[in-house]
Design a protein that fits this description.
By secondary structure, the protein is mainly alpha-helical. It has a domain of 148 residues. The chain is elongated, with a radius of gyration of 19 Å.
């Protein structure tokens, strides 16, 4: 948990610093007093944008900690499960980086809509709910299934997994609470995965590295 807190806090500071630098280093109007106002308001804007990008950035953190979290949850709640497929940290990290990049890029693309009242809530939660639901599910499921069966399960339980992603997204927007979410969200998705009747499709002995689901 302490490592999760450290990673999350570090990523938030990086997002905040990058957003602040981008705002103050960009000249929007070319008029000095207007630029001063933009820079002054930029502090608050940077905080808002950092929170908006935070859910996507946390995907990478989860990929680094997934195996440790999953094994702890399985040991306590599912002790009869067979050992999962061996999955390297780099393999999970590559999946996490892919989804993190997609999530950050799409959130930046839809950023103007995030400042439109009411619409912003649906766009933010819907977009990130889909991305987080799919990415968390894929990371967890690929420990026990091959990519083809993961894809089939995703298509069959898409609505349920997207709803789980929306819940995770909502919690990731709560200050301080969001710093602990990598552990909580990974454990939550593992419980959802174990509630799905996937075992007939399990290929626990498969050793070839899976690729991200398209």
């Amino acid at each position: 948990m302490s490592r999760s807190l450290l990673y999350a806090f570090g990523i938030f500071i990086l997002l905040l610093s990058f957003t602040w630098w981008l705002i103050v280093s960009t000249r929007f109007f070319g008029i000095e007093w207007l630029e001063w106002i933009v820079d002054f308001v930029g502090g608050a804007t940077a905080v808002i944008v950092a929170f908006l990008l935070f859910p996507g950035a946390m995907i990478f953190v989860v990929s680094l900690m997934l195996e440790r979290i999953a094994r702890a949850v399985e040991k306590k709640h599912y002790p009869d499960l067979p050992p999962p497929r061996s999955q390297s940290v780099s393999e999970a990290a590559l999946i996490g980086m892919r989804y993190a990049g997609i999530a950050v890029a799409l959130n930046l693309l839809f950023l103007p809509l995030f400042f439109v009242p009411v619409i912003n809530i649906f766009v933010f939660i819907g977009l990130n709910g889909y991305l987080l639901g799919r990415e968390y599910f894929e990371l967890v499921a690929l420990r026990r299934l091959d990519p083809e069966n993961v894809r089939k399960l995703w298509n069959e339980y898409r609505s349920r997994l997207c709803l789980a992603g929306m819940i995770i997204t909502s919690l990731l927007t709560i200050p301080v609470v969001n710093w602990f979410m990598p552990v909580v969200a990974a454990a939550y998705m593992l419980h959802i995965f174990e509630s799905i009747p996937y075992k007939n499709a399990t290929i626990s002995g498969k050793t070839s590295p899976p690729t991200a689901i398209e």
